[in-house]
């Protein structure tokens, strides 16, 4: 998951993200099939850098900042 319905449309297009609604959720999300390394590399080229990372269960969460 790389964004929600309020995310920058140009950025979601750049990432190749697909907008979807998962059954049971009351929001839309953007999803990519790329590995995290690919997405993080693309975001770095777009001006973002990783600030922190953590694991939540079997999910990894990255916090990024745009310079």
Q: How is this fold's topology laid out?
A:
Elements: E1 3-4, H1 9-15, E2 18-20, E3 29-31, H2 36-45, E4 48-56, E5 59-66
Antiparallel strand pairs: 1-3, 2-3, 4-5
Shape: globular
Distance between the termini: 22 Å
State the strand order across the main sheet.
1-3-2
Helix content: 25-40%
Low-confidence stretches: none
> How many distinct domains?
1
CATH structural fold name? Gtp Cyclohydrolase I Feedback Regulatory Protein, Chain: K
Helical stretch count?
2
CATH architectural label: 2-Layer Sandwich
Provide the CATH superfamily: GTP cyclohydrolase I feedback regulatory protein GFRP
Number of strands: 5
Along the chain, the helix and strand elements come as: EHEEHEE
Largest beta sheet, briefly? 3 strands, antiparallel
Describe the structure.
The chain has 67 residues and is an alpha+beta fold. The protein has 2 helices and 5 strands; from the N terminus they run βαββαββ. The strands form 2 sheets. It has a 3-stranded antiparallel sheet, with no helix packed on it. The chain has a two-stranded antiparallel ribbon with strand order 4-5. It is globular.
What's this entry about, in short?
With 67 residues, this protein is an alpha+beta fold.
Key descriptive features of the protein:
3-stranded antiparallel β-sheet; alpha+beta; 2 helices; Gtp Cyclohydrolase I Feedback Regulatory Protein, Chain: K; single chain; two-stranded antiparallel ribbon; 25% helix; 67 residues
């Amino acid at each position: 998951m790389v964004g929600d319905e309020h995310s920058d449309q140009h950025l979601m297009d750049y990432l190749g993200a697909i907008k979807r609604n998962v059954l049971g959720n009351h929001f839309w999300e953007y999803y990519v099939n790329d590995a995290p390394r690919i997405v993080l590399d693309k975001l770095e080229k777009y001006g973002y850098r990783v600030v922190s990372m953590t694991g939540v269960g079997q999910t990894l969460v990255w916090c990024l900042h745009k310079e």
